[in-house]
Design goal:
- By secondary structure, the chain is of the alpha/beta class.
- The chain has one domain: Aldolase class I (TIM Barrel), CATH 3.20.20.70.
- 46% of the residues lie in helices and 13% in strands.
- The protein contains twelve helices and eight strands.
- Helix 1 packs parallel to helix 2, helix 3 runs parallel beside helix 4 and helix 10 runs antiparallel to helix 12.
- The longest helix is centred in the last third of the chain and has 17 residues.
- The protein is globular and about 45 Å long.
- The two termini are 33 Å apart.
- Catalyzes the condensation of (S)-aspartate-beta-semialdehyde [(S)-ASA] and pyruvate to 4-hydroxy-tetrahydrodipicolinate (HTPA).
- It holds the Pfam family DHDPS.
- Keywords: Amino-acid biosynthesis, Cytoplasm, Diaminopimelate biosynthesis, Lyase, Lysine biosynthesis, Schiff base.
- It is an enzyme of class 4 (lyase).
Length: 298
């Protein structure tokens, strides 16, 4: 089977007005920037989209906007369909299928968590009921638990579970999953901008990126360089983007991506509590890194 996408997908930032309400026009501007920048896929309602503090109705409206804007472009739409409540995740998955998303991203249940057996049940329960490609999402830094390699292998056998977004930032873990799923119809995507080069070189199909919000064209160029084996260009871009990637996470995501987008005139810096605006010192770190990268002329 064909991968859901190959190259870079953007985990879309969600612009907000100063009163915390959603800035739908700013969101549309950002989606269009990503389309114009050549990304392979648009992820709506991911972690970077502050999904934890918006309503399910807002999620659904954002999904419809992205699907409408992506029509006719060939760019895939991946809808976030995660929850710590399996029935809520199923509701989101069914909606994504109904409105025409190309795939769903389903995060590991958080807070109440579960066992490895429970993870298999959670993901299988959803995949059995919705005929849409699913990307399981392993981000233990936020969920408090890891999807064990053997659990991934078991889930990878399901006809609708097609890939995993790996945000462990652990190349050894990724290698273990890649080696044990290589004979299955299952792909791996990095969830960490700082390991795009080694992750794709090891067999990953791409990255679901925060960095792409700021530099969509350059992130796609970087990912394609690795996929095509142009290691000279890939290494140069990895080194030159390193500080930008680092300082995009000097504060809690998506605080710093919004700072960067505000600098670019796309939207404001507003984030919903408990997130708060960053410091001037953090802004300087990011802006200096951006200037240094932009001088490279990619």
């Amino acid at each position: 089977m064909e991968p859901i996408f190959e190259g870079s997908a953007v985990a879309l930032v969600l612009p907000m007005h100063d009163d915390g309400s959603l800035d739908f026009e700013g969101f549309k501007r950002q989606v269009q920037r990503m389309i114009d920048g050549g990304v392979q896929a648009l992820l709506v309602n991911g972690t970077t989209g502050e999904t934890a503090t918006i309503t399910i109705e807002e999620e659904f409206e954002l999904t419809k906007i992205v699907i409408e804007m992506a029509k006719g472009t060939g760019i895939k739409v991946i809808a976030g369909a995660g929850s710590n409540d399996t029935e809520t995740a199923l509701k989101k998955a069914k909606f994504a299928k109904e409105v025409g998303a190309d795939a769903i991203l389903v995060v590991t249940p958080y807070y109440n968590k579960t066992s490895q057996r429970g993870l298999i049940d959670h993901y299988t329960y959803i995949a059995d009921q919705v005929e849409i490609p699913m990307i399981i999402y392993n981000v233990p830094g936020r969920t408090g638990m890891n999807i064990a390699v053997d659990t991934v292998v078991e889930l990878a056998k399901h006809r609708n579970i097609k890939a995993m977004k790996d945000a462990t930032d652990n190349i050894a873990y990724a290698m273990d999953v890649l080696s044990k799923t290589r004979d299955l119809d299952f792909d791996m995507y990095s969830g960490c901008d700082d390991n795009i080069l080694p992750f794709i070189a090891a067999g990953g199909k791409g990255v679901i990126s925060v960095l792409s919000n700021v530099y969509p064209r350059e992130t796609e160029k970087f990912a394609q360089a690795v996929l095509k084996g142009d290691m000279e260009l890939a290494k140069a871009m990895a080194y030159d983007l390193n500080d930008v990637s680092k300082y995009l996470f000097v504060d809690v995501n998506p605080i710093m991506p919004k700072v960067a987008l505000a600098k670019l005139g796309v939207c404001g810096e507003m984030v919903r509590r408990p997130l708060i605006k960053t410091t001037e010192a953090n802004k300087k770190l990011l802006f200096d890194a951006m200037i240094k990268f932009e001088e490279k002329g990619y």
